[in-house]
């Protein structure tokens, strides 16, 4: 997905559209546009306004905009029932906080953009091996002698100035480039499925449970998407439940043990008396009461699950190779930032390659690629640290930690400037510093 986005961006830019580009994909590529299905696929992404701006720039938004489900509010609360925070698009003067879109539709829009372009689509095939040079530059050499050489499993081979590794968390390109990773397994699985709810809504709901967060995301009509992060044992149990029992389990997990609804307490007094008089309280949602989530009526698709982990490549770049998306970093899905960080990578790489072409540089020059790496690490690492911290804090069940979480929830809920900062940070994808429509 992210690799195709890079290709779309390069063919959309006057500076880079003359580059010879090949996309290698292990799946057959169909140019038939994916339509909204009667029942949405459970594999979805939550995309931010910054990602939407990027999609507009690379020419895919027109195909996407009628197939996404917007959400303009979000509610996050704790299983302990001691605190909550509501976010609203009006808090930052935006029409929406984000959109939920099926992954298949997102991929289809990228492929449609590449149709008719000069991009070579090599599929279905896979990379068999890549030979990278030890360094790039130095004394003049015969063209191609210090390029990367890619061998495909169908027998074809390619010599290229730059390999963009966008082949996922278990990246073969990253391994062949000798780039190591750091990270850890959360000992959790993410269970996903599509459900039908009792009424259409435009709110993203998320409750933090002792075993992991449960999110209920709006889809079109009366459908919603479930993302339930939990232990492997619990995920197996949930997948094996009869449909009716699973629906009851979801509703109980969203509503159990908070009656009456959580109220703001000490933090509200603190902000009203000491902070708001100086900083103001400009967030409309600061006065919104807790709302009960919509009720799930039925499960409409298979329940799928996948392991959750954090990983980060020690380097995003090496001679003739650069990593983007999950090949460079994977995060916990609790804030839906994975695909947005990946598109942020794509936008930053396109910008750097445009600079290289404009200055007459080799696009595989390591100094150029290091500029991309520095930009994206500056954006990705803080977000990864925050998400990992949230996961750890909310998976701890003890009285003092519960009270601390509640205070944090209520402080963000009551103090408008802090709430606006949280929303703006989540919506930006780390696109700051990028030109034009690539930032909000």
From TrEMBL:
InterPro entries: FAD-bd (IPR002938), FAD/NAD-bd_sf (IPR036188), Ubi_Hdrlase_CS (IPR018168), UbiH/COQ6 (IPR010971), UbiH/COQ6_monooxygenase (IPR051205), UbQ_mOase_COQ6 (IPR000689). Keywords: FAD, Flavoprotein, Membrane, Mitochondrion, Mitochondrion inner membrane, Monooxygenase, Oxidoreductase, Ubiquinone biosynthesis. Its main location: mitochondrion. It is an enzyme of class 1 (oxidoreductase). It holds the Pfam family FAD_binding_3. The keyword Oxidoreductase applies. It catalyses: a 4-hydroxy-3-(all-trans-polyprenyl)benzoate + 2 reduced [2Fe-2S]-[ferredoxin] + O2 + 2 H(+) = a 3,4-dihydroxy-5-(all-trans-polyprenyl)benzoate + 2 oxidized [2Fe-2S]-[ferredoxin] + H2O; a 2-methoxy-6-(all-trans-polyprenyl)phenol + 2 reduced [2Fe-2S]-[ferredoxin] + O2 + 2 H(+) = a 2-methoxy-6-(all-trans-polyprenyl)benzene-1,4-diol + 2 oxidized [2Fe-2S]-[ferredoxin] + H2O. Its cofactor is FAD. It is a peripheral membrane protein. GO terms for biological process: carotene biosynthetic process; ubiquinone biosynthetic process; xanthophyll biosynthetic process. Pathway: Cofactor biosynthesis; ubiquinone biosynthesis. It comes from the Eukaryota. FAD-dependent monooxygenase required for two non-consecutive steps during ubiquinone biosynthesis. Required for the C5-ring hydroxylation during ubiquinone biosynthesis by catalyzing the hydroxylation of 4-hydroxy-3-(all-trans-polyprenyl)benzoic acid to 3,4-dihydroxy-5-(all-trans-polyprenyl)benzoic acid. Also acts downstream of coq4, for the C1-hydroxylation during ubiquinone biosynthesis by catalyzing the hydroxylation of 2-methoxy-6-(all-trans-polyprenyl)phenol to 2-methoxy-6-(all-trans-polyprenyl)benzene-1,4-diol. Component of a multi-subunit COQ enzyme complex. This is Ubiquinone biosynthesis monooxygenase COQ6, mitochondrial. The lineage of its organism: Eukaryota, Viridiplantae, Streptophyta, Embryophyta, Tracheophyta.
